[in-house]
Amino acid sequence: MSKPGTWLLAAFFAALSLTANAQTARNSAGSPQLPNAPGKETVQKVCGNCHSANLVLGRGMTREEWSEVVASMISRGAKATQDEFAQVIDYLAKNFPPKSAPGASPASPRRGGGGGFTVGPNDKQIVDAASADRGKAIYSAGCESCHGDKARGTEKGPDLVRSVLVLHDRYGSTLKPFLAKGHPLQNGASASLNDQQIKDLSNFLHQQVNDTLRSGPYSKVLNVLTGDPKAGAAYFNSAGCNQCHSPTGDLAGIASKYDPPTLQQRFLFPRTIGFGRRGLAPTKPVTATVTSPDGTTVSGALDKIDDFNVSLRDASGEYHAWKRTPDLKVQINDPYSAHIELLDRYTDRDIHNVVAYLETLK
Question: Which H or E run includes 139?
Answer without folding.
Answer: helix 129-142
